[in-house]
Amino acid sequence: KEIIPPLEQLMVEKEGYLQKAKIADGGKKLRKNWSTSWIVLSSRKIEFYKESKQQAMSNMKTGNKPESVDLCGAHIEWAKEKSSRKNVFQITTASGNEFLLQSDIDFIILDWFHAIKNAIDRLPKD
Ligand code: I3S
């Protein structure tokens, strides 16, 4: 039987461009590689698109999938010590994936930090 997610789960809460570096996958450290990502936050996940929003939208029709991050049981914290860049925070997922997100613009990174933290805090921890 098809499982239909509640509409609330599909709603986009925030979207925009940030600098992103994935630094661990399933607990295994990765070489840091910053790139611009189009980021879409909904109530229980974040999607990272490698392309611009426009490019991402047209790729969607061809089935090109973004990297999707489950926020259930995830953690978010500022991560000054993980980079020489300003305004860096880290998201760690329950599955041991680690992402750094960064913007040079203070209010942009603060808005993102609080939006993601609120989403995580509203979710069950497991
Ligand atoms: O934490 P690291 O290793 O100092 O991060 C830097 C590296 O990822 C570097 O790439 P190479 O490993 O190819 O040299 C990047 O170019 C730097 O941007 C990384 O440091 P920052 O401080 O920008 O996060």
What's the arrangement of secondary structure elements?
Layout: H1 7-10, E1 12-25, E2 28-29, E3 35-42, E4 45-49, H2 53-61, E5 67-70, E6 75-78, E7 88-92, E8 98-102, H3 106-122
Antiparallel strand pairs: 1-2, 1-3, 1-8, 3-4, 4-5, 6-7, 7-8
Q: Which spans have pLDDT < 50 for at least 5 consecutive residues? A: none
Strand tally is: 8
Question: Helix- and strand-based class?
Answer: alpha+beta
Q: What is the assembly state of the chains in this entry?
A: single chain
The termini sit apart by: 24 Å
Describe the structure.
- This protein is 24% helix and 37% strand.
- The protein starts with 6 loop residues before the first helix and ends with a helix.
- Strands 1, 2, 3, 4, 5, 6, 7 and 8 form an 8-stranded antiparallel β-sheet that branches.
- It has 3 helices and 8 strands.
- Strand 7 (88-92) and strand 8 (98-102) form a beta hairpin.
- With 126 residues, the chain is α+β, with helices and mostly antiparallel strands.
- The structure holds (1S,3S,4S)-1,3,4-triphospho-MYO-inositol.
- (1S,3S,4S)-1,3,4-triphospho-MYO-inositol is lined by residues 31-32, 34, 83-85.
- (1S,3S,4S)-1,3,4-triphospho-MYO-inositol (I3S) binds at residues 31-32, 34, 83-85.
